[in-house]
Write a structure and sequence with these properties.
Number of helices of chain A: 12
Structural class of chain A: mainly alpha
Distance between the termini of chain B: 34 Å
Oligomer: heterodimer
Distance between the termini of chain A: 66 Å
Number of strands of chain A: 2
CATH topology of one domain in chain B: Rossmann fold
Order of helices and strands of chain B: EEEHEEHEHHHEHEHEEHHH
Largest interface: A-B, 22 and 34 residues
Helix content of chain A: over 70%
Number of helices of chain B: 10
Chain lengths: 308, 266
């Protein structure tokens, strides 16, 4: 029974963190930029959401504010990277570091509990006679569906096509008269907006905003992306690929719940996360290599026998 | 009517170091509307640099570039690209490999237009691209939704050429665009280039290492050496040129024997 409960918790967490993974997918896979801002912007989303709720602002509107704050964090990284020609990794790390102080300034302290305050989930619980965890799952599902639909639409537009092409071949995009500074800037802004939105939702779900809540967020996002890719493959249709990221995020949380249930120390969680990403990225390479060698042996062996 | 005008365009690399090299020395050049100019010269003569200056890949040190009456000297690369079509030496450079043929074409079709939030590829465009790709004669029209990464170098180069001219550019820049292809494919892409330039009445600059090609195509030929244009010939005089003439001309200008296997081939 205890495990079933933690499984439900894992699903609701996974879905809400999945929106962050979608944001990371936009920068990491589509723009081909490892955006380190997200560790900071995730907490920024949480911080802005928490102080908005404390100020008596509607929880949904608080999420909107958090998302706008995410846009701004992405813009800072984007401007450092495009206008001032810093390597993307460095631009992201600088923004992330600055955000740590800024998040503390926003919150005024390192931790804001929301246990006595309104949240989206508590508000809905008054109308829907379901356990809170199911309400979290339903809300998370709705948010994911909307975000996936918007991303699918956006990346299919004229501008979205240029954004995809930028991650593919910047030179080609410029040669076709498009300013790649703009496509990268917008991509980073959108990605971080989604990350901050996720931070706001997670804050409301766990009932607390913490300045350290974003530590390792980028690796968790990558874990979700690669788990999704390992299961559904890289060749799936685009809608399914986006959905597979949220599913990957849920699976990641289930894996974490299972190993915690088995007695893993929570201190070792970051190590586990790093291992999941490392293994998920290593396995396909090893499999490819093995396939190639066994194919070589098979074909060469046959060939030599034929001519013998 | 003058389409492209270069006035005293100068470019040095590694300024202030022992490796300082002045690659373009006060180049002056005027191209009339509809001129198809081939550019030849040895390695390091400044051919590619001149094309890169016109395209705005990196900033020039001094000089003025005017395109169709517009001073583009300080325009960034993407802004000039709205007026200029380009095909590169590397077949990988002109297309987005992970995107479909039709998506690549749609991006090129919108050159010079604002990228909006309308659909990236509309239904009506598909027929247009089908016909345009069919004219390349490579059978790609049945594979419009294939990823460009699956195409061969020659196919990608032909596609890039189509993309560069899909929305008629004021100027077409071809930087050794057949050099990385095998001889048969190279000839095919060159033929396509000629056809498209003639049909669309384009103004074009084509850098080549193949002297025979340089003589056979286009209505004007320029030869570069050490950052200068040392020979400029057009019309009847160009048609009567031979590879031997060019070699002799080069020796006169440079005072060296012009030894370059690639230039003698073909």
């Amino acid at each position: 029974m205890g495990f079933l409960l933690s499984l439900q918790g894992a699903i609701s967490q996974g879905i809400l963190w999945g929106i962050m993974a979608l944001g990371i997918y936009l920068t990491f896979r589509i723009l081909d930029i490892a955006d380190m801002t997200v560790d900071g912007s995730f907490a920024t989303g949480g911080a802005v959401c928490a102080i908005s709720i404390l100020a008596g602002i509607n929880p949904i509107l608080s999420i909107v504010f958090a998302t706008i704050a995410g846009f701004i964090t992405g813009a800072i990284t984007g401007i450092l990277h495009t206008k001032f020609k810093m390597p993307a990794i460095l631009a992201g790390i600088l923004t992330q570091l600055a955000l740590y102080s800024i998040n503390l300034r926003i919150m005024g302290k390192s931790n804001i509990p929301l246990l006595q305050s309104r949240t989206v989930f508590k508000d809905l619980a008054q109308f829907i006679p379901l356990p809170t965890v199911w309400i979290q799952i339903i809300v998370g599902f709705l948010f994911s569906v909307i975000v996936i639909a918007v991303l699918y639409w956006f990346l299919g537009t004229e501008f979205g096509s240029c954004l995809r092409a930028t991650g593919n071949n910047e030179n080609m995009v410029r040669a076709n008269g498009v300013n790649t500074d703009n496509t990268k800037l917008i991509g980073l802004m959108l990605g971080n907006a989604l990350v901050a939105m996720s931070g706001a939702l997670v804050t409301q779900q766990q009932g607390v905003a913490d300045v350290k809540m974003g530590v390792g967020a980028i690796v968790i996002g990558l874990a979700s992306i690669v788990i999704g890719e390992v299961i559904f493959g890289k060749k799936a249709g685009f809608k399914l690929r986006l959905a597979s990221i949220v599913i990957g995020s849920i699976l990641y949380r289930i894996i974490v719940a299972v190993v915690l249930q088995m007695g893993l120390n929570t201190d070792d969680l970051k190590l586990l996360t790093a291992l999941i990403v490392a293994i998920a990225l290593t396995v396909p390479v090893i499999i490819d290599k093995r396939k190639q060698v066994s194919m070589y042996k098979k074909l060469t062996g046959k060939d030599l026998n034929d001519h013998a | 009517m003058i389409m492209l005008k270069l006035q005293k365009v100068t470019k040095s690399f590694n300024v202030g170091t022992v490796n300082e090299k002045c690659v373009l020395k006060q180049i002056n050049l005027e191209l009339n509307d509809g001129d198809f100019v081939t550019v030849i010269g040895g390695n390091g003569a400044g051919k590619s640099t001149m094309l890169n200056m016109i395209a705005g890949v990196y900033p020039m040190d001094s000089g003025i570039i005017t395109l169709d009456g517009e001073n583009v000297s300080l325009y960034p690369e993407y802004k000039r690209a709205q007026l200029i079509g380009r095909v590169f030496q590397d077949p990988m450079m002109g297309t987005a490999a992970d995107m479909q043929i039709i998506e690549n074409l749609a991006i090129a079709k919108r050159r010079g237009k604002k990228r909006t939030l309308h659909w990236g590829v509309t239904k009506g465009e598909k027929d247009e691209y089908y016909n345009a790709v069919k004219e390349l004669g490579l059978g790609l029209e049945e594979r419009l939704t294939s990823k460009v990464g699956l195409l061969s170098g020659g196919q990608r180069q032909a596609l890039t050429l189509l993309m560069a001219t899909l929305n008629k550019p004021k100027l077409l820049l071809l930087d050794e665009h057949t050099a990385a292809l095998d001889p048969a494919t190279s000839a095919k892409v060159l033929k396509l280039t000629q056809q498209i330039i003639e049909r669309e009445h384009l103004t074009a600059l084509m850098v080549t290492h193949n002297m025979k090609d340089a003589i056979d195509v286009g209505n004007r030929l320029i030869m570069m050496y050490d950052g200068h244009i040392i020979y400029d010939v057009r019309g009847e005089e160009k048609r009567n040129l031979t590879v031997a003439d060019l070699l002799k001309k080069f020796e006169e200008a440079s005072g060296e024997e012009f030894v370059n296997d690639r230039m003698l081939l073909g």
